Amino acid sequence: RRVLFRSSLTQRPGHLRLYGRETIGSLFRQALVARRQQAHCFTAATVVNFEPDKFQQMAGLVCYYNSSKFHYLYVSHDEELGKHIRAMSCLPDQVQSDVFSAPFAIPAAGVPVELRVEVDYERLYFAYRVPGAEWRWLPGPLDASILSDEAAAPGTPNFTGAFVGMCCQDLAGTRRPADFDYFLYRERGYRPDPLSVNI
Hints:
mainly beta; eight-stranded antiparallel sheet
């Protein structure tokens, strides 16, 4: 009988390896490791080594409430653009629930990517950088208030709180792995301009 691993701490020592599973919107086989958000203002960051070769493969940093309410900063692949990063939001109060940022090309093979999120109450900003570069901020802010019980129609299913963490998907079924070097979660005071602060 074959065992399908979703994660490993031994395949690459010093890293968490997540094997790509179902979509971030799936209610079943997820590859997601996250911690509870316990403050209204916080910084979270990780660094991922991930080499996708199909558009169905993604890995990155997610602010997650449930399968229909999240903001996700991820690395993926496009036939024309190649390896790139973009953000996807699933918004519960929109006709078109899935919203994507423009993709940003990043260096290909073997280059780790740092991912970062800054949350101040209802404002959420994503950023990324590759070694030797400055943080690059994605357009924002995104609406962090959707990560709550209140951001849903009455009577619809809700979860038990907001989380932030790491995840990996492979809709091609090849279980493409992503290696995460660290995960940082730091609660802090309100910042009027989080984009001007380094971590």
